[in-house]
Input
Amino acid sequence: MSESPRLPPETFALGRIASLLVMLGAVLYFTGWTYRWSYFGFFQLEVTTLPLPLESFYIAAFQVFFGSFRAILHTIITFALVVVGVYCSLWLLEGQPSQSLQAGVENIHRRILDCLDRRLAQGQPPKNFWRRGLLWLYRGLLQLLKSFLEFHLLEYQSLGFLRSLLDETVIICWLLAGCFWLAQWQGEADAWRDAVNETSSLPVVTIVVREDSFPLGVNPDNIRNPQGIRIIGDATSYQQLLSAAINNPSQNRVWRLLIDVDGDYYIFPALPRRDETRRPPVVVIPRSREGDRLIQLRPTLDTDIPSGDNNNQPTN
Output
């Protein structure tokens, strides 16, 4: 029989590089998805309902890891904690605690075998036929149990593979846990930053629609509520949106664009200040197929941020 040809070392190297790239892509996607989930979840939106492009999750992952100096610092701390967690877990599985446990199990295993040997060696077979049959059955069961306990299962190579797989599973679980908590924290921190007017990085939005074609917004020349509409849900929240439809920087009320999804505009009035008990309401403006809407976006100006004197005024 001819020996099967051995693969060159370069093939194994390429296989490891390919598996590393696959794992890296999975971790980046998981991190970016978690970040988007945490960010949009802050605004009461489910990321699975938003048709976001696949590449946006990878870009979000890089933003989590390297978006700012503070993000880099948190990344270093997180991965340091992951390394410590992996080290402690592998020490429990392979170090002194595991060896002590294995020694205890081996001691119990040896005592059971010794007890079985004594049971099999003692006593003479009885003269009664039925008792002799029961004794034969009893010894057969003991012999079967002894054979079962003497079977060296851990010597099989497949079990060695499972042990290495367990170690890799521990490492991957710690890595995913670290990426999850880092992305969740970063997503919520960025959401709070964008939700507050003075720190928001989102663009200021102005939407112009035909009169009475959209049940929100007011006529700047003749402020009145739209007519001929009906409401399902919280009427108070709707009235508050009507009264706050126009930007008022002196009261720290500025409308901002959260995201544009295939022509559906998600806008919200930014919060005047950070308040853990509040979340900004999000208004979804459906896409228009008639070209009867004007969407204006611009960056934040100094006039959008109230002065120190105006900050002390009460807000509506």
In short: Confidence is low (pLDDT under 50) at residues 309-316. The two ends are 89 Å apart (CA to CA). The longest strand covers residues 255-261. The CA atoms of residues 53 and 197 lie 28 Å apart.
